[in-house]
Structure of Protein Ves:
Amino acid sequence: MSQLEVKRLSLVPAQPWKNGGGVTRLLAERDCDWRVSLANVEANGPYSRFDGMTRLSLIVDGKGVVLRGAERVLPLEYLVPTIYDGSIDWTASLIDAPVVALNIMARTDRYVPSAQILHTEATLPPGSAAVILAGHSRCVVYGDDGTAIAIPPGQFLAIASVVKPMRVVRDAGSPIGNHPPVVALIESIENRASRSNFA
């Protein structure tokens, strides 16, 4: 766990969208298999299409976005993880004002993305990849060897591969506020299925 590096969100370079509708900050990725990013959606317009990818969006700042495509209407609400098909041509309409969204894209045939608000603590399962955003809180990641990594407010930690179960704990003395800590996970379909069957 000593090789893991906590980083400041503010130092992650912003990459402009091709359509000019916002910017994206890449937090972690694995080749063409999956990626986790934080996007500023600043204007109404089309979402990029990603064939063969499952998408998950979690609005962490702002009221939300409404996606429309293929005769479907899909609201992306504040602090509600929403999974949808990246192969559809979606058009986004902001609700009142720009938003910031945590986005996960993962190959549909290989991975299952998920995200949760960290109210107290969560467990990172072996075989998963994870990104922990501290938001306004302080979080601590505990390894099975007793080591711990603190994630201060405004920073994040990306873990490319969880070898053994790890605990993520929100400091009870830290505010959860309008920017709560978030745990994003990417698991293989096989790993997710085996955990579900065991449970």
Notes: The chain has a mean pLDDT of 92. The two ends are 27 Å apart (CA to CA).
